[in-house]
Amino acid sequence: MFECYQTHDMNFTKDSSSTHPNCIHCVYDETLHDGQVVAVSRMCVGKQCVSYNHVFEGYGQNRICCSGKLCNVDKETASKYFVSGDAMD
C-alpha cells in the first residue's frame, strides 16, 4: 500500500495538496468539455479500479488507475504507473 494525492482542485500543487495513506490504487480522473480539461480529480481507491478513455469529439472523461507512491500527480506520471491488470477502453 502507498500514498495517493486526494484532491479535486484544478489549481493543483504538490506541496499544498492533501494525500491519503494506505491506498491500493491511485486514480487520475479528468473531464473534458469541447477538448479542454474542465475538472480533475486525484483519489485513493481500493482493490477495484478500472481505467478508461471515454472522450468522444472532445467531450467525456478519462480515468487512469496507477500503483505507486503519489503516481496520480499528473496524467503522464499516472500513465507510467498504469495498472496493467486493468483494462483501458
Automatic annotation (TrEMBL):
It comes from the Eukaryota. InterPro entries: Snake_toxin-like_sf. This is UPAR/Ly6 domain-containing protein.
